[in-house]
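Good morning,

Attaching, inline, the backbone tokens for the sequence recovery test we're adding to the shared suite. The designed sequence is right after.
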């Protein structure tokens, strides 16, 4: 078991809101991957981390007997990265981050807020995965679905904003 890995560099040991701290740590790293590489790279990195995390979480749970320990926040990284690989999912250079016309910053922040909302409230299938799936699949599954839903909704909101701007 790799405690450093599953607690995301020990950010999960933060006493208050470790999930939010893990997501905050994940956001700028994911944005940097989008800027310097691509959405495909971010997606594949999230997928690889998910596969490794499932194995490591299963190992941790078999030793500790604890399911979904709140200190495990690698699931937040995977969920946030999946959200970012869906929206904004655009290639920009570092000097274009502040340009609101490309939607990168707006969609990234929307993805963060929506991901945290879905991860905390766990509506619909997200909550069902959290309650019913066991082991690493259960820990990672709800965050992966929350990430995809947050990314899709973020992209849809951005497209709505663009439509409203063209009508004005």
């Amino acid at each position: 078991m790799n405690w450093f890995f599953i607690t995301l560099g020990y950010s999960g040991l933060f006493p208050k809101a470790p999930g939010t701290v893990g997501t905050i740590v994940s956001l700028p790293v994911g944005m940097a991957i989008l800027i310097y590489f691509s959405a495909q790279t971010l997606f594949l990195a999230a997928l690889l981390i998910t596969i490794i995390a499932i194995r490591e979480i299963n190992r941790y749970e078999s030793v500790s007997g604890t399911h979904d320990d709140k200190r495990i926040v690698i699931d937040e990284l995977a969920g946030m990265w999946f959200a970012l690989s869906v929206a904004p999912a655009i290639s920009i250079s570092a000097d274009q981050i502040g340009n609101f016309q490309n939607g990168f910053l707006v969609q990234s922040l929307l993805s963060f807020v929506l991901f945290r909302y879905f991860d905390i409230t766990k509506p619909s299938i997200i909550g069902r995965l959290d309650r019913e799936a066991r082991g690493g699949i259960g820990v990672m599954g709800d965050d992966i679905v929350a990430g995809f839903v947050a990314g899709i909704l973020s992209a849809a909101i951005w497209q709505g904003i663009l439509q409203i701007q063209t009508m004005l």
